[in-house]
Amino acid sequence: MPTRVHEFAWPDRIVVGTIGLPGARTFYLQVRAGTQIVSIALEKQQSALLAEKIDEILDQLITVEGNPFSVPTSTPIELVDNDQLEAVQEQFRTGAMSLGWDPTTAQVVIEAYPIADVDADDNDEPLDEGGANESEMLLVRMPVGTARAFAKRTREIVGAGRPTCPLCGYPIDADGHICTLPEV
Hints:
This protein is of the alpha/beta class. The protein has helices at 44-62, 118-122, 144-159; strands at residues 4-8, 13-19, 26-33, 36-42, 90-102, 107-114, 136-143. A hairpin with a 4-residue loop joins strand 5 (90-102) and strand 6. The radius of gyration is 19 Å and the shape is globular.
């Protein structure tokens, strides 16, 4: 069966946001173009790494002789997006992701694939009528300014979680932490 591709060539909005309280948040990559909205769940670490790698790509492009892509060194103020996620209907939970650069359109390219279902490979039965076993992916192309804004917001969202314990480096829960709880 062909892969269903959720493709966004010039999205109106692309953000990482969360639902839930720190320590129990679910991270979502949400993309919108017109009325089409796709939300995929991903891990906090995937979000952080995505932002880091996007900034690395953009920083490397700045060093290209003459910077032909007009890559901004910081987030353009008109692209700052601090709004909440729009209505979230999860398409899939992200497994593998790839990140690239398309010089022909001067866009950062993100591809996200769902976590592979090991049992699905061993199953030779036909797909059900509703296409529940259909494979899918998200393909997003975004211009450099949007990519810079996306990375900045994502770093802020990731950093807004629980504080880190100065003794052990693990997150501190609202109800306490093993290193800082008074002994009984």
